[in-house]
Hints:
- By secondary structure, the protein is an alpha/beta fold.
- The protein folds into two domains: 15-137 and 300-313, 3-Layer(aba) Sandwich (Rossmann fold); 139-298, Aspartate/ornithine carbamoyltransferase (Rossmann fold).
- 42% of the residues lie in helices and 13% in strands.
- It contains eleven helices and nine strands.
- The protein has helices spanning 20-39, 61-72, 94-104, 115-125, 139-153, 170-182, 198-211, 244-251, 258-262, 285-288, 295-313; strands spanning 50-55, 76-81, 107-111, 129-131, 160-164, 185-189, 215-218, 229-232, 270-273.
- It has a five-stranded parallel β-sheet, covered by helices on one side. Strands 2-1-3-4 form a four-stranded parallel β-sheet, sandwiched between helices.
- The protein is globular, with a radius of gyration of 19 Å.
- The model has no long low-confidence stretch (mean pLDDT 97).
- Norvaline (NVA) binds next to helix 6.
Amino acid sequence: xxxxxxxxxxxxxxxxxxxxxxxxxxxxxxxxxxxxxxxxxxxxxxxxxxxxxxxxxxxxxxxxxxxxxxxxxxxxxxxxxxxxxxxxxxxxxxxxxxxxxxxxxxxxxxxxxxxxxxxxxxxxxxxxxxxxxxxxxxxxxxxxxxxxxxxxxxxxxxxxxxxxxxxxxxxxxxxxxxxxxxxxxxxxxxxxxxxxxxxxxxxxxxxxxxxxxxxxxxxxxxxxxxxxxxxxxxxxxxxxxxxxxxxxxxxxxxxxxxxxxxxxxxxxxxxxxxxxxxxxxxxxxxxxxxxxxxxxxxxxxxxxxxxxxxxxxxxxx
Length: 317
Ligand code: CP
Ligand code: NVA
């Protein structure tokens, strides 16, 4: 692990801006933080600090992870929904909101629609800003995902992660970005109309070549063969509700069920899902509640990884 914290003062908006060494630092710190939590070690590393948690969209895990991880370390988290603050009624610009929050808080978390909002908060607040999900990407999720892979397999480099479902959403973009930095092989299986935009894939290719990752984007479900982990996400992301019935039709052949898990030809393949899951749509209850599922560990790891990101960015380690 790097001795000097390379993340101090940084924002996490997307993994595209982070080096493999910086991501490795955060992964190792996440494991340390998890071990401390299991041993019941209580520290007060956020004492005297506060964080604004802005949520335009709903959240169970991300909000709970930020709020409990920050509060348990002696910090003061403040939850701000759009019903509470002036950006919700369109009366105050994001820039002005950022300037004021930066004078009052030590950091900001934003979950919402536009990537440009989280970027503007980072540009104008002067404090670390964490992307808790936008339409574009979901970086804190991807760190918990690779941590879960490492807990299972020791290392994630060279492992075969296969995502099957809506292949062009926030979760798949963050998976591609982090896998290309860490050398995790990634196969994304989705219908033609739901594949990642070439522009984003191009941005990840140089890192993927450097790390030695293999990237496959296909509509053939047989490409699941050899998967160490099969991952899926909801068919209709938050904000896309109007697409619900069209998505169901397009994505039904891509459901993760027992037959698809058997196609991996491996008994030790694990199942991952960022959650929330709609059982009977993108995944069957048999798989998500079955022996191969690691989704509850993955969900718990959201808290440890988010704590590590906050500790490092806020210079508390
Ligand atoms: N995975 C995830 O981000 O969950 P929440 O929407 O509950 O925060
Ligand atoms: N793609 C999903 C992720 C939820 C955590 C969504 O944006 O709704």
